[in-house]
Amino acid sequence: MPGKLCTVDPYHDTVLNEQEAEAALREIPDILARCTEVSHTAAVRVLAGYLKDCAATPGSYLLLVGD
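^ thats the sequence. predicted structure below, dont judge the formating
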């Protein structure tokens, strides 16, 4: 079943609202379990922090800037 994070476009900006951030946050444990590099794990943990902050703040958005 596809999750919310698969909708992030690496080439364009992606905006998640608080509900979408909450849904994406539920995907983090599975992603962490598949990380094989320390740097990847660290990056996913940083993303989880951003998602948590967004999900906990009504009316907020998380902007993921593409390349």
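The first helix runs from residue 18 to 25.
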